[in-house]
């Protein structure tokens, strides 16, 4: 029965994640011209508002879980999360550049000038609503009946496998599978941040830091599979560092009890 409930929780999260993107972005896409500078920010805001509404409804009427259990404390942990998410991506991309797996494209100064607005769009369109769902709602509901280690594995894998339908530079089956592996590693780093920070915000920061780190260097892939492997390794290492001392990697019953609490 526990397995069925777990599968249902993951399946519902997938449905909600897709719904919040399509429903939330539709008004801006339909009402605003493609050249309108407000199109992307308002679309991202719509995704966040839709995500908040959907998560509230399923928690209120399906799971009857308290809203504070999502982990709203310590919002300043976003900054720590951004650092923890950006550093492994920058390291991986630097290695791929040094190994010849990617080349440095033309640098456009305007991209960096618009980076603050881009960060807001990424926060509202991806980082916050996706973390609210996976590291907030799913993490909380699974923690009620599963061990902390099982929660980390399921939340990370569920989030990553969903990215099989994401748009990327992957062309071959191997690259698509490696993209999923990289997404699982990102999910692991975000889930580890949820455990380390004791709340939602550090996970949001890791997710945001990942996307910002990807935009610092205008890289063009030469061997995209190598880039994905390097990113997966560095993200997994970042997650392991965040979990250090939490009793989920090295056996420590007392730490595991603290995580469960």
Key attributes of the depicted protein:
261 residues, mainly alpha, 75% helix, 2% strand, disordered C terminus
Helix and strand topology:
Blueprint: H1 2-31, H2 39-63, H3 77-99, E1 102-104, H4 109-113, H5 115-143, H6 148-161, H7 173-197, H8 201-216, E2 219-221, H9 224-243, H10 253-260
Antiparallel strand pairs: 1-2
Helix pairs in contact: 1-2, 1-5, 2-5, 3-7, 3-8, 3-9, 5-6, 5-8, 6-7, 7-8, 7-9
What do these coordinates show?
The protein has 261 residues and is an all-alpha fold. It has one domain (71-260). Helix content is 75%, strand content 2%. It has ten helices and two strands. The chain has a two-stranded antiparallel ribbon with strand order 1-2. The two termini are 23 Å apart.
């Amino acid at each position: 029965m526990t397995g069925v409930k777990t599968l249902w929780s993951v399946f519902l999260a997938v449905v909600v994640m897709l719904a919040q993107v399509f429903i939330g972005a539709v008004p801006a896409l339909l009402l605003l011209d493609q050249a309108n500078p407000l199109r992307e920010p308002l679309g991202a805001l719509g995704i966040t508002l839709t995500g908040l509404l959907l998560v509230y409804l399923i928690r209120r009427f399906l799971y009857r879980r308290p809203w504070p259990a999502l982990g709203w404390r310590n919002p300043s942990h976003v900054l720590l999360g951004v650092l923890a998410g950006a550093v492994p991506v920058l390291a991986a991309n630097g290695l791929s550049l040094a190994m010849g797996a990617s080349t440095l494209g033309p640098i456009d100064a305007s991209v960096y000038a618009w980076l603050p607005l881009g960060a807001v769009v990424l926060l509202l369109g991806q980082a916050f609503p996706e973390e609210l769902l996976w590291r907030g709602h799913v993490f909380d509901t699974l923690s009620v009946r599963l061990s902390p280690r099982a929660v980390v594995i399921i939340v990370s894998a569920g989030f990553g496998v969903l990215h099989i339908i994401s748009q990327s530079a992957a062309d071959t089956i191997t690259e698509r599978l490696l993209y999923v592996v990289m997404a699982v590693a990102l999910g692991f780093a975000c889930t580890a941040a949820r455990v380390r920070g004791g709340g939602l915000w550090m996970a949001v920061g890791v997710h945001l830091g990942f996307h910002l780190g990807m935009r610092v260097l205008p890289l063009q892939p030469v061997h995209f599979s190598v880039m994905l492997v390097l990113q997966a390794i560095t993200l997994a290492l970042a997650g392991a560092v965040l979990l250090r001392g939490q009793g989920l990697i090295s056996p420590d019953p007392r730490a595991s009890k603290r995580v469960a609490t």
